[in-house]
Design a protein that fits this description.
724 residues; alpha/beta; 17% strand; globular
Length: 724
């Protein structure tokens, strides 16, 4: 029964029944609601209760993208939107997904904000004006002209919100926006949401974390088993005691309600000691003479703002990173990186990098001592994962993936476990189960937790180490509610990143010139003409300089000089053959950093759109380009996990290497598919399928240098063809 009287005329009105394809049970059953303009409504409840499914119905991903049986209606300003496609709905309702990493269509912050505006067919001037306004309105100019994959989770979420705001819709949907954010980023997010609400935007937020919603949410809709179980006004829900919230399966609505762990910890004999540890990335010193001690039976938590060195310290403790100075001791024995890898397991925040098999059950058995198989079934049932035991790990939700990684850690035979943000996107029940699991884990293993989740920290930690500027700034013992107040003060004193954005370099060439050069190079490679390949390699060096790819210029010039130099100094069939064959491959490979390096991929997509390449092809290319700048990092993360988990049960060295390679490649393929799916969904809701004539944020205009290069490359190709 609804307890809330709606205020004003509803801007969003719906009644929905839905069941996913091939499933008999309903994902949503008689879900009915009305939301007035300028209101903020929060969907709360356990994982699997239907929150995300409802959002997918409202933005039309259901039934167009996710198939199933849909019945009911959705009205926006009293108009039924059922006949509209996803792009048209996206002009009325904007969406912010849980993980912006997998929804970014471009590689730069400003072009990402402008992407939906391009699809709406706005003019170049309007797109530029609206994009600039997005950064200035929210006082986020420092995020302009930044590479999105070099930003923190909080900064990426802010980019996604600006992109949604730029679409100028009255309604914005948020799917667990704080799942991957730290305390300070959540506070910044709240500030942005308040600005949106003040502007008159209607906000619908699916969320597990509730404490930050005070003063923001007007209503809380509690969902259970695919239905809206109850609706509460803000004051009603905030008046509930912790035990009442617990009965409803909800997390705390005020940080003052956080419960401290009870009872004394039994400290075991196993001890981890870190002495004077330092670590640097290139020339930047991340850790500076860190020393700490932790033992079996207690849990040490590392806290601090993003980029302070928490994850780096965790990886050093696990042996994934080798420190140039300092020592790590386990029970008095100094450990090498190789020994640390054998004795420890690092569970990273990015769950998707840690799966290498084709089912949940096999994932838990991978690299596991057979004697522990008996524990798998009760553990899966405890985590409400037994029904998913035969599902592929990549088909799970974000919260389910997170639970799977924690089960892997618990079952592991390793003596040390490092958990990096283990509660991202978890509901109250899952959080409680993980807290219980970590408490059991500390009886058998040394456990270090990296987290910003105060509910988790209070429930499991004995002490917290605040890392700031590469050093342990202070140690906070978790023994009373005063400790939590101190923790909140620590988080609040860390300023949100506020640095100036890098200057945007003026491009020299129109991207269509680079595309034409690529086409001509492919033609040249197919022609048996050594002189043409030599001249086009020289032209590629010129393109490297013009596109400011100086490293590519130096490497290519060195290799080409060596090949032709050997031919001159040692003339024989072998050097002639090498000089005829290798420059062809070098020519093509040297084009990749020219075309895709820096902002090259964005310019290339803009150029392809300008010459009329279909949007669906652009979507495929975008997925490919999206992985190009981060491919090496993705492989490194997967290799680190495989190093710790082993290569399965293979004893033969060749079989072990093949199994290792297979695990790496297959996990990467599934990751591409998963992110490609999310990226496609994001692109559809942002209007990629709209029939408007698409605009462009990138200024495309041929200049004199473009014409000279096009004439030159064409002249070289024609002359050499006629000579041949």
């Amino acid at each position: 029964m609804d307890k809330v009287n709606e205020i004003g005329e509803p801007v969003l009105d719906f009644k929905i029944d839905f069941s996913y394809e091939l499933k008999k049970e309903k994902a949503l059953s008689h879900v009915k609601g009305s939301i007035s303009k300028g209101r903020c409504v929060v969907l709360c409840g356990g994982s699997g209760s239907g929150k995300s499914t409802l959002l997918r119905c409202l933005n039309h991903l259901i039934p167009e993208f996710y198939e199933g049986l849909f019945n009911g209606y959705i009205l926006v300003n009293d108009k039924n939107i059922s006949h509209k496609n996803m792009g048209e709905v996206g002009e009325l309702i904007s969406s912010v997904f849980q993980d912006p990493r997998s929804q970014f269509f471009t590689m730069e912050s400003d072009t990402e904000v402008s992407f939906g505006l391009e699809n709406k067919g706005l003019s170049f001037e309007k797109i530029r004006e609206r994009t600039k306004e997005a950064f200035s309105k929210f006082n986020l100019e420092y995020l302009e002209n930044r590479e999105v994959f070099k930003l923190s989770s909080g900064e990426r979420q802010l980019i996604a919100i600006m992109a949604a705001w730029a679409m100028d819709t009255d309604i914005i949907l948020f799917d667990e926006p704080t799942a991957n954010l730290d305390y300070l980023a959540i506070e910044k997010l709240k500030e942005i949401l308040l600005l949106l609400k003040k502007e008159g935007k209607t906000l619908l937020i699916s969320e597990h974390r509730l404490y930050y919603l005070q003063g923001l949410a007007d209503e809380f809709w509690l969902m259970k088993n695919g239905s809206i179980y109850e609706k509460y006004e803000q004051n009603q829900l905030l008046a509930f005691s912790p035990s009442e919230l617990n009965d409803l399966g909800l997390r705390v609505t005020d940080l003052k309600q956080i419960q401290i762990q009870s009872g004394q910890s039994d400290i075991g004999s196993d001890k981890l000691e870190v002495r004077n540890l330092s670590f640097s990335y290139q020339k930047q010193k991340i850790l500076k003479d860190i020393s700490l001690t932790t033992s079996l039976g207690e849990i040490t938590c590392l806290i601090g703002k993003n980029g302070c060195g928490k994850t780096t310290l965790g990886k050093c403790i696990s042996g994934l990173l080798r420190s140039p100075s300092g020592s790590i001791f386990l029970n008095g024995e100094e450990m090498s990186s190789k020994k640390l890898v054998q004795e420890s397991l690092f569970i990273m925040q990015e769950a998707e990098f840690q799966f290498f098999t084709n089912s949940v059950l096999l994932e838990l058995k991978y690299g596991l001592n057979p004697s522990r198989y008996v524990e798998i079934e009760p553990l899966l049932k405890k985590f409400d994962m037994w029904e998913y035991r035969n599902r592929h790990p990549f088909s799970l939700s974000g919260g389910q993936m997170q639970k799977l990684t924690l089960m892997m850690a618990y079952l592991s035979d390793k003596r040390m476990i490092v958990l990096d943000e283990p509660t991202s996107g978890l509901d109250k029940k899952s959080l409680d189960t993980i807290i219980e699991l970590i408490k059991e884990m500390k009886k058998q293993k040394i456990v270090v937790v990296i987290s910003h989740d105060l509910e988790l920290i209070a429930a499991v930690s004995n002490k917290c180490l605040e890392i700031h500027d590469g050093v342990i700034q202070r140690i906070c013992e978790i023994s009373s509610h005063e400790s939590i107040k101190n923790m909140i003060e620590i988080f609040e004193t860390n300023d949100f990143e506020n640095r100036s954005s890098p200057k945007k370099r003026k491009k020299w060439l129109d991207p269509r010139t680079n595309l034409l050069f690529l086409l001509f190079c492919m033609i040249a490679v197919g022609i048996d003409h050594k002189q043409l390949i030599f001249e086009y390699n020289l032209l590629a060096l010129l393109f490297s300089i013009v596109n400011r790819r100086y490293k590519s210029f130096i490497v290519t010039a060195s290799i080409i000089s060596t090949i032709y130099g050997f031919e001159r100094m040692f003339p024989c069939e072998m050097t002639w053959f090498m000089a005829n064959l290798l420059p062809r491959f070098i020519l093509l490979f040297s084009l990749f950093p020219i075309l895709l390096g820096g902002r090259g991929a964005t310019y290339m997509l803009a150029g392809l759109r300008k010459i009329g390449v279909p949007e669906r092809i652009l979507l495929i290319l975008s997925v490919s380009f999206r992985f190009f700048p981060v491919l090496q990092n993705d492989f490194n993360l997967s290799r680190q996990v495989l190093k710790m988990r082993g290569s399965g049960t293979c004893k033969n060295i060749i079989q072990k290497k093949l199994a290792y390679l297979e695990a790496l490649v297959i996990s990467l393929v599934f990751r591409v598919i998963r992110i490609g799916e999310t990226l496609s969904a994001s692109a559809e809701t942002r209007g990629i399928g709209l029939k408007h004539k698409k605009g462009s944020y990138i200024s495309l205009r041929f200049n004199l240098f473009d014409y000279l290069l096009m004439i030159g490359m064409t002249f070289i190709l024609i002359i050499n063809i006629f000579e041949k």
